[in-house]
Amino acid sequence: MKIIFNSSYTNQSLKKNAYFFILLFFISNASHSQERCGTVPYSLQNRKIGVINERDVQFEQWLVEKIKFRKDLEKEKRVVAISHKIQVIVHIIHNGESVGAGTNISDEQVFSQIAVLNKDFKRQNKDAVNTPAEFQSLAGASSIEFVLAQTDPNGLPSKGINRIKGLMPEYTIENDQELKAQSYWPAENYLNIWVCNLSDRFGYTQFPVSTLPGLENSSKSRLTDGIVISFEVFGSTDDGNFQLHPSYVKGRTTTHEMGHFLGLRHIWGDKPDCTGDDHVDDTPIQSTETVGCPAHPVKECPVSNPQSKMFQNFLDYTDDICMNLFTKGQIERMITVLENSPRRASLLIPLASIPPEVQFPKLFSPNGDGINDYWLWTNTLNYEGCKVSIFNRFGKLVYEITSYDNTWDGRSSGGQPLEEEAYYYIISCENKKEITGAVRIVR
Is the whole-model pTM more than 0.85? Predict the structure, then answer.
């Protein structure tokens, strides 16, 4: 299917909702020149094209196969529990104000936003009770948890917040590289969130396309991977007297963008007139985005037998007070992306406690392209004489070596290429505590 990406608010949408915008202007005296989400135009800016092409179709086919495989394992009760804890670094790009003023938002505001993400993703948000009865059975809760990073890339203690006086007073998606170059942590290990004075959108995200099959020509930039959020929509007034935009006071812009970061599309599929597809089975068809907070139900699509719009979904454009759910299908899609996509799977923190000085990559891609083809340690000499045993998710030993030398290329001991999945390792050294962890193969 080819889907034309439209800008976040079309002229037609603005005409339909002109009364709402005029009314809100007089109530709040606030400007609405900013669009709610800039992820689609940002994606188009990176690709320099105007439609979802075959690479995107193949991405969706890849996801369908991965989701089906996971469902089959769940039916057979063969899914191995895996931690879905993600380390977050929040880069506050400010204009020189004191901490807690203007663009230099307080630590408390950051803590508030992390709390919002965890509640929304686990469906522990208080307003979950506002989900209409017809959607209650569709609402899903995830195992994903967001935590502020406790150590920086050099292993030094951190509280997961980095403050930088910016080089520009405000930013747009056109300034993306300049913004992110001012403060960046490796995207393989940290989820980068940049908070700044974003003047044309309230937020935007880099989709998880990377090196997946059929997406070889898409943006691979690890230096820009992450989420950008306007300082005036970050955090929730439920947790403090933060100066936030009147329509977006509960931190749902970041929840929305986090959905994009983990592979969700807008609920209306970014195509008008009931023809869009967000590739999630349990979200109703919509003709376009929803703004404000209308009374439920709003019926549309298809014309012959219209369904209620799920404008309460985090991937619509309604006001924060109106949003309250992800569907089970959306959760399934996000988990599949998180467990399989490059620079998403590598974010997962292993359940085992690994000493900070030990750095074993969480992912490698042995596909013969000369990039990340081997599981490379930075400290093999420290484990000379140690036995390294690799097991698949069913507990079968698939590879073993003594005195690891950075040569494992994702093959079994018998030389057969191993499947794209998570593998678990045990490093056994004489008179030392065993080290365990997980590594994922992605081709």
Answer: no
The set of residues, in sequence order, having a beta carbon less than 8 Å from that of 69 and lying 6+ positions away, is none
Cis peptide bond upstream of 297, omega within 30: yes
Model pLDDT, residue 394: 84
> In which element (H, E) is residue 298 found?
none
Residue 29 token pair? 């005296």
CA distance 265 to 277: 8
CB atoms within 10 A of CB 94: 20
Q: In what order do the strands lie in the sheet with 397-402?
A: 363-364, 435-441, 422-428, 387-391, 397-402
60, 232, 257, 332: the catalytic one is: 257
Please state which CATH class domain 352-441 belongs to.
mainly beta
Q: How far apart (Å, rounded) are the C-alpha atoms in residues 394 and 383?
A: 26
Beta bridge mates, 441: 364
Handedness of CA 205, 211, 213, 218 (dihedral sign): positive
- Domain 31-340 in CATH 3.40.390.10? The answer is yes
Report d(CA 302, CA 157) in Å as an integer: 55
- Residues 166/114, Cβ–Cβ less than 8 Å: no
Task: For 323-366, write each residue's pLDDT tens digit.
Answer: 999 999 999 999 988 887 778 887 885 533 444 444 688 889 89
Which position has the token pair 């900013």? Answer: 34
Structure tokens at 5: 């990406």
Helices and strands (DSSP H and E) totals, the chain: 9, 13
The pLDDT, as a whole number, for residue 76 is 54
Yes or no: say if 39 and 260 are a contact pair by the CB < 8 Å rule. Answer: yes
Chain segment 283-313, per-residue pLDDT in tens: 999 999 999 999 999 999 998 899 999 999 9
Alpha-carbon span 71 to 200, nearest angstrom = 40
Report the pLDDT value the prediction gives residue 120, as an integer from 0 to 100. Answer: 98
**Residue 108 and residue 238: Cα distance in Å, rounded?**
12
pLDDT, tens only, 16-62:
343 333 333 333 333 345 789 998 888 878 765 333 444 566 667 76
What angle do the packed helices 252-261 and 107-121 form, to 10 degrees? Answer: 60
Report how far residue 50's alpha carbon sits from residue 43's, in angstroms, rounded to the nearest whole number. 10
Residue entry with tokens 């140690």? 386
Any catalytic annotation for residue 257?
A: yes
Neighbouring C-alpha atoms within 13 Å toward the C-beta of 329: 15
Measure CA 410 to chain center.
Answer: 26
Q: Per DSSP, what are the bridge partners of residue 86?
A: 146, 348
Domain definitions of the chain by residue range: 31-340, 352-441
Minimal CA–CA distance to 213: which of 61, 366, 375, 47?
Answer: 61
Gap between the Cα atoms of 199 and 218, Å rounded:
26
